[in-house]
Design goal:
2 copies of one chain form a homodimer. The first copy, chain A, is an alpha+beta fold. The interface between A and B is large, with 83 and 83 residues.
Chain lengths: ~350, ~350
């Protein structure tokens, strides 16, 4: 669709999107996506048709494909004054790439739909593209296509395709009573970083960076699948909400142990400064894209996974709303809304 | 991500999205997508993991997958006062499904990212879902996943996956000098319908309906691939722009014949009423998702395709901006901007 009707197809990085038009921008983005990112280990044999046609065509060696889509909206998932476009691109890609990892797969391709005002700077778009490409390159995936539309509000919709290499997908529905629950990756850092930025600060840098550019443990998803994970989910809604998804889909309860969680120094320091308990961020913070998985009790956990609890019988008396307990206490899984944590804090 | 923090997971069709929350809405949509639409010929063997996990998993019998994404933004691609949600859903799905057809494939699955204000009515979302599902069902595809985010502006991003059944994809790059150019499907109807609605009218109904709910000739894409189409594109930017894409990617020129185009009665009548030439809509109107393809000169055209011109050598003197001529006259391919048509009208 011709949402931008610019008259010149000459793509330059100065000026606005309306100046070079939709096709000019597509041409510039196409070049950007075809460049190699850092640590390039791309398997270009996978891409049969790339950017610039009606559809891309990607190989699926084992005869199936994992697919996940995530949309990030300005003012909700990112702010252009809090993150440079390169970091926003990495973050947008990470959200979808982590979903593929959470099925036990490796992402192979991304398609990206970008909605933005006509006065958006071309240079901003190109840096966003660099971020999308570089995050995809971390797992060997390519940006193979997309769409551009005019809108009042900036938003980025990234769809990832992934390869399961012949393994069964690790869904949310396979946890069984007696399994252990383990997590790999940071919890609460991004949420604490957001709290820091919301108060007008830029440090501690580790927290702000975690918000601007999460580092999902992509390889751990494949390792968990190989180690026989019975269920897995990426932590994007907050740990309580996401283990709640596993509990509900698997029709089990999940008992977490508060003492199992590390409370890293920067979280403790900032929480103390704001008069909060760092467990708020650890248990209900999203955006970090850690992986939470269940394994048979006897399984060797893959490197990086830490035990945080176990799968128990579903407590019918509590009902579907609260299948998760922390130290024996039922908690609601609602992230960010505060209900989860206040319930958790109740005597 | 928890963009809506509603406290009840009970999904009802009354009230707003913020009332039932993200997970309540996902639960309601999931049920909707699992119902069968009309003319159901679903091959559920294709879907290994459907709505409700980190990613969906879909079979790809021939070891590759076609993927295309399209985003529709309120006020740009649709207006909620001009189209009911069911029609918006069908239209959003059609945009992506037509892209798969334009590669010569059959769509198998859709994922849908929906961004919307917190006060959006749940009933509106469910009717949108019905439309998405029913349009997908036309080609035997399922909605297998998606994302929901809060935003100020309503937008719908649909990504389609498709199966090429072992055939090579029909790209935009394969047209050769001497090929014929043919089109299947309506041209200009949706654009004329938009012109009618823009002036505050609701008829002729055929044009308004064409805008609200295009009917891409899905089966014709597969038929064209089987008949050996050398290049193909769906007409979403306007015919001149879209044959321009084929010309540029194939490094050829395309010569169209004005007399080859039908000027259907409703287009003529409305154009006359507005003091316009119906060829404006036919040559530059988007949204109808007709298919334009090139075939070897001797090929039997599949049913529904009409000859409109031929592939010629690229005229280097004209340059890349205008590889398309109508009755020997160079035209710019810019859709909607007016430049294309005013140039075409020049003496």
């Amino acid at each position: 669709m011709s949402e931008f009707s610019g008259k010149s197809a000459d793509a330059t990085s100065s000026g606005s999107v309306s100046g070079i038009g939709e096709f000019g921008l597509i041409s510039a983005l196409r070049k950007r996506f075809q460049e190699s990112g850092p640590d390039s280990q791309l398997d270009d044999e996978l891409v049969i048709v790339g950017v610039g046609d009606d559809a891309a065509v990607v190989r699926t060696p084992d005869g199936c494909v994992a697919v996940s889509t995530d949309v990030l909206v300005t003012g909700v998932h990112f702010r252009t004054d809090w993150s440079p476009p390169y970091e926003i691109g990495r973050r947008a890609a990470a959200a979808s790439l982590a979903d593929i990892a959470a099925m036990g797969g490796r992402a192979t391709a991304l398609v990206v739909a970008l909605s933005m005002p006509a006065d958006q700077a071309v240079s901003w778009c190109l840096r966003l593209a660099d971020g999308l490409r570089d995050e995809a390159t971390l797992v060997g995936a390519r940006v193979v296509g997309g769409d551009i539309a005019r809108s009042r509000e900036l938003s980025i919709c990234v769809t990832a395709l992934g390869d399961l290499a012949g393994r069964a997908p690790v869904t949310r529905a396979g946890a069984r009573e007696g399994d252990v629950v383990a997590v790999c990756g940071r919890l609460g850092f991004a949420e604490a970083g957001l709290a820091v930025l919301s108060r007008g600060f830029r440090s501690p840098r580790a927290l702000v960076a975690a918000y601007q550019h999460p580092e999902p443990p992509y390889a751990a998803g494949i390792a968990a699948a190989r180690a026989g994970a019975t269920a897995m989910c990426d932590v994007s809604d907050g740990l309580l909400a996401d283990v709640g998804h596993i509990a509900r889909e698997s029709k089990v309860g999940i008992a977490l142990r508060g003492a199992s969680f590390e409370r890293p120094e920067p979280l403790q320091a900032v929480a103390a400064a704001y008069g909060l308990d760092p467990m708020l961020w650890i248990l209900t913070g999203g955006h970090d894209h850690a992986l939470v998985a269940t394994f048979s009790a006897g399984a060797d956990l893959p490197a990086g996974f830490e035990l945080i609890g176990e799968v128990v019988a579903r407590d019918e008396s509590i009902g579907e709303d609260s299948p998760v307990t922390v130290d024996g206490q039922a908690v609601s899984g609602t992230a960010f809304g505060g209900a989860g944590f206040s319930h958790f804090n109740a005597p």
